[in-house]
């Protein structure tokens, strides 16, 4: 199960990153029509689900979220059984479920119509993702310090959080920084999980 979780942790961010880049290229003109600009990522990446290949983004939210939840379970099995492990992996699982919730289609920011129920749900799950993913990282850094296989990733995790927290809530180029830092962190942790599962 730990090996399977490690594979999910490795493949999930790669899938998410590849789909984001590919759909941004394929739906470039559509995203411009929503008010998105490369240096001002309004409605990105959620707006990609509104475009002609939107079903791909929706499916990616679903698969990536489920993979994150499985990844969290593998971390729970691998790390020492402490309250830090239990709480951090629960939060990471909740972040995965928050990502699954992003499958509810967003509303464009620039619109003349009222919010839809699915747009409100999408926004709510985005908040869930933000309120669980970064606290999970902080608590995982504490859990990592209690295991010699993981302790050298504790500082790296705290530095990543320090970089990611302010950029998550900011618009513009800062959001790209958050996303890149988060995806790289997931990859690093997943490869470590794979190595300790041997």
Structure description:
The chain has 198 residues and is mostly helical. The protein has one domain. Helix content is 72%, strand content 0%. It has seven helices and no strands.
Per-chain topology:
Layout: H1 2-26, H2 28-33, H3 54-78, H4 83-101, H5 117-144, H6 154-168, H7 173-196
What is the compact description of this entry?
This protein has helices at 2-26, 28-33, 54-78, 83-101, 117-144, 154-168, 173-196. It is mainly α.
Offer a few descriptive terms:
198 residues; mainly alpha
Number of domains: 1
Strand runs, count: 0
User: Over the alpha carbons, how many angstroms does the gyration radius reach?
Assistant: 17 Å
Question: SSE order in H/E notation?
Answer: HHHHHHH
């Amino acid at each position: 199960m730990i090996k399977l979780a490690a594979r999910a942790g490795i493949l999930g961010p790669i899938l998410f990153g590849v789909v984001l880049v590919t759909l941004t290229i394929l739906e470039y003109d559509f995203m411009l029509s929503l008010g998105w600009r490369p240096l001002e990522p309004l409605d990105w990446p959620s707006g990609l689900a509104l475009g002609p290949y939107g079903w791909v983004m929706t499916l990616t939210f679903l698969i990536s979220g489920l993979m994150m939840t499985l990844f969290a379970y593998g971390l729970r099995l691998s790390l020492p059984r402490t309250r830090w492990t239990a709480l951090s992996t629960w939060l990471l699982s909740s972040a995965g479920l928050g990502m699954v919730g992003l499958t509810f289609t967003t509303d464009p920011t620039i619109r003349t119509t009222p919010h839809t129920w699915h747009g409100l749900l999408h926004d709510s799950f985005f908040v869930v993702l933000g309120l669980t993913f970064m606290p999970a990282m902080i608590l995982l850094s504490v859990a990592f310090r209690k295991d010699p296989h993981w302790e050298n990733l504790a500082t790296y995790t705290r530095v990543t959080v320090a970089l990611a927290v302010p950029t998550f809530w900011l618009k513009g180029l800062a959001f790209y920084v958050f996303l890149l830092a988060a995806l790289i962190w997931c990859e690093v942790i997943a490869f470590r999980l794979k190595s300790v599962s041997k």
